């Protein structure tokens, strides 16, 4: 049986994500933020932003006026719009959160950064790499931050996992096996025209995780795809990615599971690491770190890794499991703007994920591996 290590709140030391309170308080002005897309996810992200104490909610926009009015009444936005072009030109905004259907992410993001607004854009940020590249280039030209919403990077167990990996806990990286599964998709998530399907919905999360931990250029992709129905979205995807450093990753995503499950296994010459989605546990076995020479299960505490919340911060019970993770993501977004630096997750990261998803669909079409330039 693995040993159990219950980490105290003082262990391990805080890593620098997000910036410290001391640095944040040097900026007098709170960021003025707008929301594009007032559905559930947009409202949860706005709620998490309020919990950071780093920004004010100024204006929100949705094609459905009742959704914008609901968000304003619940969260305190001062103005509502049905057209984000009007909101971007009329409202005094520093930044926007964009949480719309997948096919509408890129047009909204491009409009926002072109208007000189920093943008946190829900993943996958676009339907393909070419569209994402337009936003990356426009944001660079405008001098604003474009941050994709890859929230798994802000979970305590994955942050500790990455720290141990960077410290050489597994030695030379050899294998990565990962997956992100979900139950049957409906509504717009079952519509290929709107960017539905498990690959773009949950699969991009696990692809970002794999690219993050391997930290090398993907050079070749081979995928086996099964389809829900002819002309529909995929039922499941199994793919292999070869990297420039000769690591090979195997990745699975599907809508065949009657629930939610995700995992990330990292194996190297000196040990292994494993995390699972919706669990704060990290499994470690390392021949290079004496403390973990035997298989160890770490119950990773939240406080050393997640941002401090504003005094009196309260959140919806519906999203309580994720609000502090989203708050940490949004604190990183705000602090990157306040400190004049790129965020820890960049538009280039989103672009690399979409280069792989493009290759997945091309490999499924041709039945052959796809070389990435």
Description of the structure:
The protein is α/β, with parallel strands linked by helices and about 375 residues long. The chain folds into two domains: about 20-150, 3-Layer(aba) Sandwich (Rossmann fold), CATH 3.40.50.720; about 155-305 and about 345-370, 2-Layer Sandwich (Dihydrodipicolinate Reductase, domain 2), CATH 3.30.360.10. The chain has helices spanning about 20-25, 40-50, 65-75, 85-90, 100-115, 130-140, 155-165, 200-215, 320-340, 345-365, and strands at about 5, 30-35, 55-60, 80, 95-100, 120, 145-150, 175-180, 220-225, 235-245, 250-255, 260-270, 270-275, 280-285, 295-300, 370. The protein has a ten-stranded mixed beta sheet with strand order 1-15-14-13-12-8-11-10-9-16. β10 (about 235-245) and β11 (about 250-255) form a beta hairpin. α6 (about 130-140) packs antiparallel against α10 (about 345-365). The longest helix is centred in the C-terminal third of the chain and has 20 residues, at about 345-365. The radius of gyration is 20 Å and the shape is globular. The model is unreliable at about 1-30 (pLDDT under 50).
